Amino acid sequence: MAAIAASAQSMRLTSGRLPKWAPWALLLGSFAAAAVVFGVAAAGGDLADFNIAGTLIVGMILYIVLIAVVSSIAESSRKAMDRIMTALVSTAFVIALLPLVSLLWTVVVNGIQRFDAEFFTFSMRNIVGEGGGIVHAIWGTVLITLLAALIAVPVGLMTSIYLVEYGRGRVARAITFFVDVMTGIPSIVAGLFIYSVFALFVRPGISMGFMGALALAVLMIPVVVRGSEELLRIVPNELREAAYALGVPKWLTIVKVVLPTSIAGITTTVMLAIARVIGETAPLLLTAGYTLSLNTNLFDGQMMTLPVFAYNQYMNQGTNPDAAVARAWAAALTLIAIVMVLNLVARLIARLFAPKTAGR
């Protein structure tokens, strides 16, 4: 039996077709060889010195060369060209992912150093060197972003419902135009707008979490409107017409048919809007301000947020630059983790509330 299996394997290698495992083996071997080369180059240094981008690029180049040679020997030149083109397309995909992979690798390697109990239970009050934490920044980010979502999501969703279900003529075109304009405004303009309004009607120099939430809501609304509008438009008209034929009023059709049908996509849109604003720094510097202490009152006093915390720790390193930079990296990693958790929650909500089909 072993001789028969070996003979069959030999025939596959010489009959014009590589076995299915061969390209994957060559790919893994190429990445392993590139990792060894760059690992030796970074030997003796920090883990962050390992060049993951170079490893991926060199690995893909080595794989293209190997698959071209092996395929041209074991297969036809036409099949070899097909495999080369497939490898080039895959390489383009890897290059597109390089910034994300490199960013995540750098943040994780540099931020994991301060992922301890103290970092998540203490604030920066009375801390001038090592130690301290981001509990005040986490509370500020969660509360401000939550309030911004509570403001922006109903406004954006109802605007998209109006544009899809009711809007006609000049009013709808004007709303669409201004939403498109708002989508492209710089984030600092939203912060300046909210700050100017409160400076005129309350007092100059005021800063509080509620202002930061309003600034983020201004940035979230156009994202929610555009995303929800497209999702509502792809709901089949047959569903609406079936509800109307049964005598269901328009508003109830929207609530019971249109929104449940598109709830999964709308939830994803909301998460994208939150991810769009949760890392904003400029508008929060102008509106929410900066503090070293924990403040959970959105309507009284300045509040710290994670992006502002990371920015301040990097720009004002104080008496211990290494500790400040480590806190900045850890805050950035925490922010990424929060966004990831929000996306997981959004997927769970979308799965729970998505319309049930016959196959589910």
From TrEMBL:
It is found in: Cell membrane. GO terms for molecular function: phosphate transmembrane transporter activity. Belongs to the binding-protein-dependent transport system permease family. CysTW subfamily. PROSITE patterns: ABC_TM1. It is a multi-pass membrane protein. The keyword Magnesium does not apply. GO terms for biological process: phosphate ion transmembrane transport. The chain crosses the membrane at residues 21-44, 50-74, 86-113, 133-163, 175-200, 206-225, 257-278, 328-350. GO terms for cellular component: plasma membrane. Pfam families: BPD_transp_1. Signal peptide: none annotated. CDD domains: TM_PBP2. This is Phosphate transport system permease protein PstA. It comes from the Bacteria. Keywords: Cell membrane, Membrane, Phosphate transport, Transmembrane, Transmembrane helix, Transport. It comes from Microbacterium oryzae. The keyword Cell membrane applies. Residues 138-346 form the ABC transmembrane type-1 domain. Part of the binding-protein-dependent transport system for phosphate; probably responsible for the translocation of the substrate across the membrane.
